[in-house]
Predict the 3D structure of the following.
Amino acid sequence: MSYLSSLKPQTQTFVKSDAPMRDIYLSVIIPAYNEEKRISKTLDEISYYLSRQAYTYEILVVSEGSTDRTSEVVKAKMTAIKHLRLLDLKENRGKGHAVKNGMLDVSGRICLFTDADNSTDISHFEKMKPLFDKSYEVVICSRDSKDVSGAKQEVAQAWYKRLLGNMGNIFIQIVAVRGIWDTQCGFKAFRGFASEKIFSQTRIMGFGFDIEVLALARLFGYNVGIVPAKWVNDADSHVRFSSYLKVLWETVLVRWFLWRGVYNKN
């Protein structure tokens, strides 16, 4: 089977958990792969913040084929943290696969995904909320001041990662998503209907899914807002050099899918 044929929707496996049907304002999705050392602290910080807000919320951790104790740690936290659920996927198919499953499982009026290392603190949602109160369907965080004033990396990545990221972004803008300098920040939020329409059609299961998501948002005519991130790099990031190369290939795939008209705009 070719790589392109393997991306057909019918070959993808998505798991629906026993998500309760209730009126939730914010759903927070946390993709996690072998995060037993970091996930507990992240959940504590997210729960502490959300429990002090006036709106309703839920937290969903999507364990993507973890081989460590990620799932056990999350289950243990459920007794102490309100509205916490776990979606335990047995196969590791990539971050895009985890986020897609999570987004299609929750029921919030706004659906946000954030990284398990908490590099972009949950309080950034307060910058997003005013844009959702206006006419925006998608709001993202950016670590690049060329996108929005005030964006910065509080603890920066290694120089070679920054260089690769900058070079890769120029390619991404030329090929798939013009005008956005940081497509890869792992803190993005969507109105519920936009999340369902976008993620029901995504085909990229790796780190390049962010590019596909933004390309689809543009294709569907959604307003995309950008707020500044105060981002703290985690040295234990799962992103490796090979991941940058794969993202570039996945960017080409997104352009190919757009040219072929494989996405349903209706």
Summary: Residues 1-13 have pLDDT under 50 and may be disordered. The longest strand covers residues 24-32. The domain at 21-260 is CATH 3.90.550.10 (Spore Coat Polysaccharide Biosynthesis Protein SpsA; Chain A).
